[in-house]
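We emphasize that the prediction below concerns an isolated chain of 178 residues; any contacts that depend on oligomerization or on bound cofactors are therefore not represented. The input was used exactly as deposited, without trimming of termini.
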Amino acid sequence: MKKLSLYTANSPSVAFFKSYLELRPQIVYINGEYSTEGIIRYGIPQGSILGPLLFCIFINDLPLHITSDSVNCEMFADDTSLNASDKNTATVQSELQKSINEVSDWCDKNAMILHPAKTKSMLLATRQKHQLRPLILNLNLKDNHIEQVHEHRHLGIIIDDEFSWRPHITSTCKTISK
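Result of the prediction step, given as a token string:
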């Protein structure tokens, strides 16, 4: 509600959303029995038409909390990516780690949870640079090491660390052949 008020202070729409979001009861039915009623303090009704809009308003300020000029924050719905480029891998690692810590702090302040198992890193470079020496990013999300992958599906496209497009083409061909 606080973030929505920043966009439309003293607006009737803020009062509408407040009545929609606050004091929502919840009862759980499990093994043939109902729980006692509880009040939901955070979140948006899942599957609601307003859910995606309210979620976008809620996370809209996340990029403002990343202080590095060399790190970009790309957001699409609930999928957020950080990216940086530099000739020096250590510089990329340092700037990304700083930004990961800032995103983690933002999440803590906004009652959001980052899932370390779903968080991945990838270092994109030419095949020749990958062959010269191992290109390793040592990044952490709180006490969890972030897995470095060679390929990753991002918004339906499989990107590999050499930008060869082979994994995406192979996947597309398999899908088409079915």
